[in-house]
TrEMBL record:
Keywords: Cell membrane, Developmental protein, Disulfide bond, G-protein coupled receptor, Glycoprotein, Membrane, Receptor, Transducer, Wnt signaling pathway. GO terms for biological process: canonical Wnt signaling pathway; non-canonical Wnt signaling pathway. One of its GO terms (cellular component) is plasma membrane. It is found in: Cell membrane. Gene3D superfamilies: Frizzled cysteine-rich domain. The keyword Membrane applies. Residues 33-77 form the FZ domain. One of its GO terms (molecular function) is Wnt receptor activity. It comes from Sinocyclocheilus anshuiensis. InterPro entries: Frizzled/SFRP (IPR015526), Frizzled_dom (IPR020067), Frizzled_dom_sf (IPR036790). This is FZ domain-containing protein. Its main location: membrane. The lineage of its organism: Eukaryota, Metazoa, Chordata, Craniata, Vertebrata. Disulfide bonds join C51-C75.
Amino acid sequence: IMPYNSTFFPNMLEHYDQDIAAVKMKVLSAEAFVPECTDHTRVLRPCRELCERVLSDCSRDMLTFGISWPSELQCDR
């Protein structure tokens, strides 16, 4: 949760609304940090394809702003 309640669009990444900003990232982060459990014994991790797609989609902007991909979201896990 952000410590503010207002923002502006288009933002620095040229997103014109919140829907464009991070649809796939929301799914990936939810699956990584709040994973589904099955039969109380198995944790379902995000699929590699989704992780690689989000990394690919975000890499240009991450380089622009000097942001590193979080170690918790490494796609080979």
